């Protein structure tokens, strides 16, 4: 597969934070967790990491290796399974029942309020 817009470095999830330890801004990419870039400004950190991601994508493509799919292009069903243990399951089911909600509705509300 050749590098396409689906693997355009700008479509990946980046974060730029201050690194007290390094005394610079550090850019990271969720889909490429082993990569980071330090710079004096947030803009330079992001630009440096995007350039690096572009190079890594080209190298992976040239080697015929898999290129991570950007989270922004993935489809999500809205469902996932969660194992939480019998005691927590019982407690959540009880709390949901007390509020006249399904367990699913109750957990979704709790998660929405936590973010």
What key phrases describe this protein's structure?
115 residues, 40% helix, Double Stranded RNA Binding Domain, alpha+beta, three-stranded antiparallel beta sheet, 2 domains, elongated, 3 helices
Distance between the termini: 38 Å
Structural class: alpha+beta
Gross CATH architecture of the largest domain:
2-Layer Sandwich
What value does the Rg take, in angstroms? 20 Å
Helix share, percent: 40-55%
Low-confidence stretches: none
How many domains in all?
A: 2
Annotation, overall tally of beta strands: 3
The side-by-side strand order for the widest beta sheet comes to 1-2-3
**Succession of helices and strands:** EEEHHH
- Share in β-strands: 15-25%
CATH topology description of the largest domain? Double Stranded RNA Binding Domain
CATH class of the largest domain: Alpha Beta
Overall mean pLDDT stands at 93
Number of helices: 3
> What characteristic shape results from the CA principal axes?
elongated
For the biggest sheet, the summary is: 3 strands, antiparallel
